[in-house]
Hints:
Elements: E1 2-10, H1 17-34, E2 39-46, E3 51-58, H2 61-83, E4 87-100, E5 116-120, E6 123-131, H3 133-137, H4 140-157, E7 164-169, H5 181-187, E8 191-193, E9 200-202, H6 204-222, E10 228-229, E11 235-237, H7 239-244, E12 256-260, H8 269-278, H9 283-288, E13 290-296, E14 312-313, E15 320-324, E16 328-330, E17 345-355, H10 357-378, E18 383-388, H11 391-395, E19 408-415, E20 426-434, H12 438-442, E21 446-447, E22 454-461, H13 462-473, H14 482-491
Parallel strand pairs: 10-15, 14-21
Antiparallel strand pairs: 1-3, 1-4, 2-3, 4-6, 5-6, 7-18, 8-9, 11-13, 12-13, 15-17, 16-17, 17-22, 18-19, 19-20, 20-22
Helix pairs in contact: 1-2, 6-10, 6-14
Amino acid sequence: MVEMNVEVELTKPVTNLEAVFSSCVKSLKEKYEKQGTDIEYVVKVAKGGASLAVKIKSNKLVTATDAIVQLEKQLAAALGKEFKVGIKNIKVIDYEVVFDLEEAPKKAITIPFVAKVGIKGKQATLRYENFNYQWVKDNYVERTIKLVKDKITQMNYEGKDEFKEVVWEGKPRQNTYKGDPAEDLEKMNWIKRTPAKGQFVYGREFTALVNVVRELIAEEIYEPLNFQEMLLPKFEPWVIPQKSGHAKNIYPNAYFVMNPKNASPEYWEEVMDKYAITREIPLEEIKQKADCTGIMSYAQCPPFWPYLEGKVIDEGTLPLKIFDWSGPTYRNESGGTHGIDRLEEFHRIETLTVGTKIQVIDAWQKLKGAFTKFFDETLDIEIRVCKVTPWWMAHAGIKTEKGTDEMGTYDFDAYLPYRGNRDKEWLEIQNDSSNGDKYPTAFRVKGKNQEYLWSGCAGGSFERILCAFLAQKGLDPQNWPAEIRKRFETKMKNVKPLKFY
């Protein structure tokens, strides 16, 4: 049920305004009644014919929104044609909507723009006061109802076990090294922690080992499956997370980007002068002089999509299969960072497929097999492959959904001996997903037949892969697989380790 009280102000008084109003709503009521919708308009003329107080009641939200928008159009046309009068303003004095819920919430919820949220059992009431009429036209109420339902779903899923089904397990390895690789790598000066949270400088030795992994992934996965490299941006203007869907809940984990409102030295003179005197960064002044223009890349694949946005692609040229490892990804780890397995700046391996439904599902399954073989045989580490909640649903807080045979996510977990218990201490080092038409729909990417294409992605990080590798194999190259040791020693052949006093 929906009820709203609206005041319609005219540019000047009109005689017999009530008759004009009645004529306008007659056709509207007939239209809604044919659709099976109860609709009621109650009008009171005020200010000598210069305004109307209108009450609208409906048993359907969509009709209520349409009812006021269509009334505005009908009145504007009738008043303009006959009386040369326009509509000056429309004020929504109050607006109340009552709707049913699938489940009752565990606790009270808060919603912006709403004067009152009332929930009793499985029925919710939203009451707005002095609501912006443009917001009604822009469907804020409909979006708010969806937000209420989504919040309740997420709230009620909290605390439930996340869906995780092991679909493949590698054989256990004997591990003689029990240390935390990050701690020992720092002692060896292969890596060095910076003043930033969850960030390292990677020395020549660690970087050489990263490049060995790069070469092997390219040779054993990307080349046989015909993936080609692209260079993707690492900054996302706000329009990208808006379209990808990350803008819904990215904020606790995002690294925000601030751009100067003005680039002239005069504009920044006070900031520079304060630093010259205090030798402290005047953060508050900087915030006032800069705008937040976007985020640093969080998932790495969204910045790809402007490349195809709005395109219609000949399916004969598909699938498009690409990878990108040209730079870091940034995430604020609210749960804390640790070593090289949980970082805020990490070097992501992004793998992406765009094509028909059949092509994307095929690539998804082939990548699953290729990554499994790479970790199990080439790196010779103990892993397991798990079917998990699709990542886009997990991000929304819905952890128990399983996905399907056509859409979903696989996680590749590696055992970390230094953490102890083999039953629990596993680290996700890679994932592989079929995303359906989620991104092509958001960025309007179609095939020649005008149907939205599909996409898949697979993400991992060099830091996590090497954390698992070194945790199981240790830091002595003599204990590594022969091919990895040979390539590493070749790269380090003429490198002298630094010595410190």
